[in-house]
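Good morning C.,

I know you're traveling, so I'll keep this short. The sequence:
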Amino acid sequence: MWHYYNPVRVEFGVGIFDDLDKLINNRRYGLVTYPEPFFASLCDQLQSRAGAPVVLINDVQANPDYRLLAQQIDRIAEDEAPDVWVSLGGGSVIDTVKVFAAANGDFDNVRKYLETGSGANQLSATPIIAVPTTAGTGSEVTCWATVWDEVSGIKYSLARQNLYPEVALIDPILMCGKPQALTISTGLDALSHALESLWNVNANPVSAAHAISAAREVMDVLPRLANDLQNVELRSAMAQASLNAGLAFSNTKTAIAHSLSYPITLKYNVQHGIACSFSLPIVIESVIGIGGLCEASLNAIFDGDLPTAAKKVSHLLHSLGVSTSPADHGVENAAWEALVEGAFDGERGRNFIGNKDNFLKAAEALGAAAA
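The tokens, ready to paste straight into the viewer:
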């Protein structure tokens, strides 16, 4: 038995950002974005069509943290609570908006829920229109947000069925010109989402179909896009691949590579897309022979040549300037062994259908544990 569910309405196309005011539909809207000129210009374009937002939060930072989120919510007056939130930016903006949508005007409501699992009746569910400006997060079609407590060194997942965005509006033109490093990191995040949804206890035939399409497209398109950043056709292909990866892991969540990535991002300041992708060859090598939907899907991605799949992904990563050695990301042997132990014990680690022994053997075989 299996099930698949995703209620998000998707609007996709070059230039479709111009229709955002129609989706807002005269509702009081809150607008959340980054503090950069590019986003200020987009905000101006939106306001010329939809009018001014009742609240504007434009100081979102990477990896939304407890302290900033609490400060931002404190700025939202009770009489300014919007009827709909609009996120304009990458994964951190969409995550931030989901926190705002759930907080019911007080970050402590979210904090209590994250830390204790209680207080769900105090949370809200304001509708969200998600407008991603990078191809990687997939958060525009999921019902959870990543929330960081950097002081305590803890990463939380705010997971609520009523936090699926109302609409995901995906305009590839908004992604053109993004820097090469960001393009690579977010693209590899999408690849990780796709593959992580396959070696997953929650995988199903529909999620797998999305994952296969996404993984094949990322591996084909990303190396070309990295050297042709203004190419709208390639940006469109990557945006669609990211969307498919999002539709895949929206039903499975992620697994062991992401479980490894969170402390690597927190402790070693490695970008999320890099932190969750450099270990992918190890995971692929460790699940060869596992059979079932996972192996069938990997065969579809790698044209039936699983013995060379890990090497192909390693080559892809290296061609994009990403090392597959933990030491090159600041993680020496002793720390790596501890991280692996913790990753298998974590919630995302428990989604993994493989096992720690095979993972460690694969790491040794690929030389990934060498300091």
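Safe travels,
E.
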